[in-house]
């Protein structure tokens, strides 16, 4: 009977050790993946070439809305490619409503700095034939992003999304 108890105890101990080592290996693998993603995102930010797939919109008035995967904001070197919906009050727009936030334009000013909790904060300004825009983008190490757009002739609007680290070839539209 004592022999059976020792064998059972040994088996439980071996099982616990194997489980602990598997968990440690999985945790290390997850940490390595997170580091690789953070590295890829930082390289894209340094090169000023990245695409944020937008999944949620937060207008100043009204309720926030989930979006389809069709919307994005791309920065490529000295240009911005904005494929974003707009909901809000317009103070002055061209006849027919204009383009809203669906445009391609050169970047007039681009500033990037490290923010809170290791996030990168990007301030960029641009203008097109309709309006001038200030984009404040916060990008976290895991790729999640917040975008705040302040047009001159419309109410501001915010978006959330995620940088796809595997999709850093530049504009696709």
Automatic annotation (TrEMBL):
UniProt keyword list: Signal
Q: Which Pfam families match?
A: DUF4251 (PF14059)
UniProt KW Ion transport keyword: no
Q: Where is this region: Disordered?
A: 150-173
Tell whether Signal is among the UniProt keywords.
yes
Q: Note the InterPro entries from the entry.
A: DUF4251
Signal peptide limits: 1-27
* Protein name as annotated: DUF4251 domain-containing protein
């Amino acid at each position: 009977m004592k022999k059976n108890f020792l064998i059972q105890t040994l088996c439980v101990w071996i099982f616990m050790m194997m489980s602990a080592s598997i968990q440690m290996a999985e945790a290390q693998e997850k940490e390595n993946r997170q580091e690789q993603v953070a590295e890829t995102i930082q390289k894209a930010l340094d090169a000023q070439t990245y695409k944020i797939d937008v999944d949620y919109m937060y207008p100043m008035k009204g309720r926030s809305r989930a979006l389809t995967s069709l919307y994005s904001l791309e920065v490529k070197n000295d240009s911005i490619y904005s494929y974003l919906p707009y909901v809000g009050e317009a103070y002055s727009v061209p006849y027919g409503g204009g383009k809203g936030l669906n445009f391609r334009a050169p970047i007039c000013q681009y500033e990037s700095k490290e923010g809170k909790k290791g996030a990168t904060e990007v301030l960029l300004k641009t203008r097109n034939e309709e309006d001038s825009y200030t984009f404040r983008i916060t990008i976290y190490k895991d790729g999640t992003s917040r975008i705040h757009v302040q047009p001159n002739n419309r109410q501001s609007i915010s978006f959330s999304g995620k940088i796809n680290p595997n999709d850093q070839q530049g504009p696709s539209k």
